[in-house]
Amino acid sequence: MSISALSAKLIVHALYLEISFKYIKSIQVAKNVSVPPDAPGCNCKGECTNPRSCSCAQLNGGDFPYVSQDGGRLFEAKDVVFECGPKCGCGPQCVNRTSQQGLKYHLEVYCTKDKGWAVRSWDFIPSGAPVCEYVGVLRKNDELEDISENDYIFEIDCWHTMKGMGGRERRLRDVSIPASNRVNEVDEKTLESEYEPEFCIDASSFGNVARFINHSCDPNLFVQCILSSHHDVRLARIVLFAADNIPPMQELTYDYNYAIDSVIGPDGKTKQVPCFCGTADCRKRLY
Asked: Which UniProt keywords are listed (predicted)?
């Protein structure tokens, strides 16, 4: 893979990176997936500054989710963040578009002794800063083949996160979700007992730097669901943010949060993979 194929902010040990995948900068959509139309936007001009008059701020509980410090930092983790989108009156530098502004840090993909490929930053990353979006091909879960052999599937399970139904940890504060955007217009009791994520991001053949970030039971990144162009939680963008201040050259990690014994191999047997994160709270198994 040549350096020219990568983002200018991504530094890769190209001589050692021999994998069959294509680097992409934004989500690709499978042919059988229909993306919702653009949602109505706010009427702000230039940048959004008044949360009382900004309709996007109202969707975030009446305030902006980001502070402008250090180029935009998430004030606190949330169930889902509503960013400004294509129909908003503000410009591309609006603070409420923070996660849409591309890679800000020099990231390096490198090889580890026990965990294969990994990612670190050459720059200091402040707490709450967006690091990268998980990019790949947006697919339907029920049409995936050999899922147990694909380690680059990221299920979009924001509804589970919002309702605290297992999966990734519940975020700190609820947001106002219009009823028309709720999954399939079904009641919440049905969701709690039957709902399974419908879509995923498959980064096995097409992806970006996020696919190389390893799991840790005590990570320095967290997963944040973000809605910008539309408001369908089933198809939210998945962005990784800094959970703490991250010094240069420290490995970047997030919690894959597999349930133990949840992965079944093609032979019908439960797959078991050890965890090598090495943290004090290590669960000893990835799944």
From this structure: Chromosome, Methyltransferase, S-adenosyl-L-methionine, Transferase
